[in-house]
């Protein structure tokens, strides 16, 4: 097959591994910087142009869209969809998962475990917002944050009010969530492909750090999931309409809760800690589905009907 990896940087570990895995299985792999693509939007022959030439005859694409480039990146993915090219994750599913508020609302609708979460616009309602999640300590998140950036732990009521007011002065959208103290700075990354968890790892935050992101000094090791955790991860990815996803869970006193569903999960941490060839499994998924022309699935169609 001819497969395009939509990535801003060909040197990134995830991009390199996907290219290597595809070539090892005999596929023609090409890394395409989606920000340098431009599109001819027409009803007769829609095309994606790159470096002055049309990107033609591709069987599949693997979107690796950066969070800050979601709008343009998903437009490029959508153009490939218009051209009938199979995509590992569809544009609608990527957009859906990137909107943290909408993501939580969809997961809530499906009855999937979540931390108690509050969302409001007016700073006049700060006390009520804090009370919704059960008081302090609590976690305050920027909706547009990624890799642990824009996430603050407020340990007192006054600290929470100060942080919320500061974010509001910046006209930033925020979520306020209960702090899962019993997780002790540990979360679980589940890598889901085609409704199956293919690898899972425990991420432990650095000493004194409540965020477990590897980019912030956290450590990772393989993790055996409980049946409930495995089911929760699969249901969360399916609710988003994502066929390739990283689902982050916390172990709480009331069962596993989903913190995030990532449409472009990194491969380095999960592959190095678990020794699972995740990149190869993504290519296998494309082989099984692109060849059959499966452009859309029922989960994605169902999620599209959810309006928030």
List keywords for this structure.
308 residues, alpha+beta, Rossmann fold, D-amino Acid Aminotransferase, Chain A, domain 1, Dna Ligase, domain 1, 3 domains, 5-stranded antiparallel β-sheet, 4-stranded parallel β-sheet, 26% strand, ATP-binding, RimK, ribosomal S6-glutamic acid ligase activity, ligase
Compact summary:
With 308 residues, this protein is of the alpha+beta class. Helices cover 34% and strands 26% of the residues.
Structure report:
This is Probable alpha-L-glutamate ligase. In the C-terminal section; belongs to the RimK family. Belongs to the RimK family. ATP binds at residues 141, 178-179, 187, 211-213. Mg(2+) 2 binds at residues 260, 262. The longest helix is centred in the C-terminal third of the chain and has 14 residues, at 227-240. It is built from ten helices and 16 strands. The protein has 308 residues and is an alpha+beta fold.
Computed Rg: 20 Å
Encode the helix/strand succession as letters: EHEEEEEHEHHEHEEHEEEEHEEHHH
Residue fraction in strands: 25-35%
Number of domains: 3
CATH class of the largest domain: Alpha Beta
Estimate the global geometry from the Cα principal axes. globular
How far apart lie the N and C ends?
Answer: 37 Å
Tell me the CATH topology of the largest domain. D-amino Acid Aminotransferase, Chain A, domain 1
- Tell me how many strands there are: 16
**Total DSSP helices:** 10
Percentage of residues assigned to helices: 25-40%
Largest sheet: 5 strands, antiparallel
Which secondary-structure class do the elements indicate? alpha+beta
CATH superfamily of the largest domain: ATP-grasp fold, B domain
């Amino acid at each position: 097959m001819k497969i395009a990896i939509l990535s801003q940087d060909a040197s990134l570990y995830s991009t390199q591994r996907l290219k290597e895995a595809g070539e090892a299985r005999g596929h023609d792999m090409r890394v395409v910087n989606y920000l340098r693509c431009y599109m001819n939007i027409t009803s007769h022959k829609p095309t994606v142009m790159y470096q002055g030439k049309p990107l033609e005859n591709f069987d599949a694409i693997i979107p690796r869209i950066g969070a800050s480039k979601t709008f343009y990146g998903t437009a490029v993915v959508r153009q490939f969809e218009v051209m009938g090219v199979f995509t590992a994750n569809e544009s609608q599913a990527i957009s859906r998962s990137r909107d943290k508020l909408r993501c939580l609302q969809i997961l809530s609708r499906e009855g999937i475990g979540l931390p108690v979460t509050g969302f409001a616009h007016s700073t006049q309602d700060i006390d009520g917002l804090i009370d919704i999640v059960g008081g302090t300590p609590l976690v305050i998140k920027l909706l547009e944050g990624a890799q642990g950036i824009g996430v603050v732990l407020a340990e007192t009521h006054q600290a929470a009010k100060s942080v919320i007011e500061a974010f509001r002065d910046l006209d930033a959208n925020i979520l306020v969530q209960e702090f899962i103290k019993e997780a002790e700075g540990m979360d679980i990354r589940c890598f889901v492909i085609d409704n199956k968890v293919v690898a899972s790892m425990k991420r432990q935050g650095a000493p004194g750090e409540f965020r477990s992101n590897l980019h912030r000094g956290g450590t990772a090791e393989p993790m055996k999931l409980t049946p409930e955790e495995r089911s929760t991860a699969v249901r969360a990815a399916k609710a988003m309409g994502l066929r390739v996803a990283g689902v982050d869970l916390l172990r709480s006193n009331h069962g596993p809760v989903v913190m995030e569903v990532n449409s472009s999960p990194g491969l380095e941490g999960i592959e190095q800690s678990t020794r699972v060839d995740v990149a190869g499994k993504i290519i296998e998924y494309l082989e099984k589905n692109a060849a059959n022309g499966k452009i859309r699935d029922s989960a994605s169609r169902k999620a599209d009907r959810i309006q928030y």
